[in-house]
Design brief:
The protein is mainly alpha-helical. This is DUF1993 domain-containing protein.
Length: 178
């Protein structure tokens, strides 16, 4: 099989944005904690909040936002993946999980991802089905990851946490045009 030189594009379009989104999520959680502290309210109802009764709670959305990138990265990593996205019960647990997830993601080599873009892997929700890692990323991992991050953001915004689009997008590394 001939390998296409992607020059790290697969990594830049998956791992890097997931790491950035986790950073942004950390900033969003900072605002959520400040909101709870200023309002002198119990954070538990916020962690249990849902947009709709049949949707996951905030803590479950956060767990999935940790689990999904680690689940994806394990296909390109020699190290044992951290166990994140399972037992986090509060924001401190989520923050600890974020650090573990980001450290693990940081250990993924762009060259290895490029070399394995056509590798068939089982999808996490049904091990009997497989996709190339590139299709898995574009069709399942990235949309699913952003879904859970977005719903977490929406729950917090709905609960009155003062958030805007800039919080979701984070700091952009732009180039001045003029």
């Amino acid at each position: 099989m001939i390998q296409i030189n992607r020059d790290g594009a697969f990594h830049r379009l998956t791992i890097i944005p997931m790491m950035a989104a986790l950073d942004n999520l950390g900033g969003i959680l900072d605002k959520a904690e400040a909101h709870v502290t200023a309002a002198k309210t119990d954070p538990v109802p916020l962690l249990e909040a849902r947009l709709h009764p049949d949707m996951f709670s905030l803590i479950q959305q956060l767990q999935y936002a940790l689990f999904i990138p680690v689940e994806f990265a394990r296909h390109f990593h020699d190290g044992e993946p951290p166990k994140v996205g399972y037992e986090e019960a509060n924001l401190a647990d989520v923050r600890a999980g974020m650090k573990l997830a980001q450290a693990y993601l940081g250990g993924v080599a762009p060259e290895r991802m490029d070399a394995q873009a056509d590798l068939i892997v089982p999808v996490f929700f049904d091990a009997r089905q497989g996709l190339t890692t590139e299709d898995y990323a574009s069709r399942i991992i990235m949309p699913d990851f952003y879904f859970h991050v977005t719903v977490a953001y929406a729950i917090l915004r709905h609960a009155g946490v003062p958030l805007g689009k800039r919080d979701f997008l984070g700091k952009l590394r732009t180039t001045r045009l003029t």
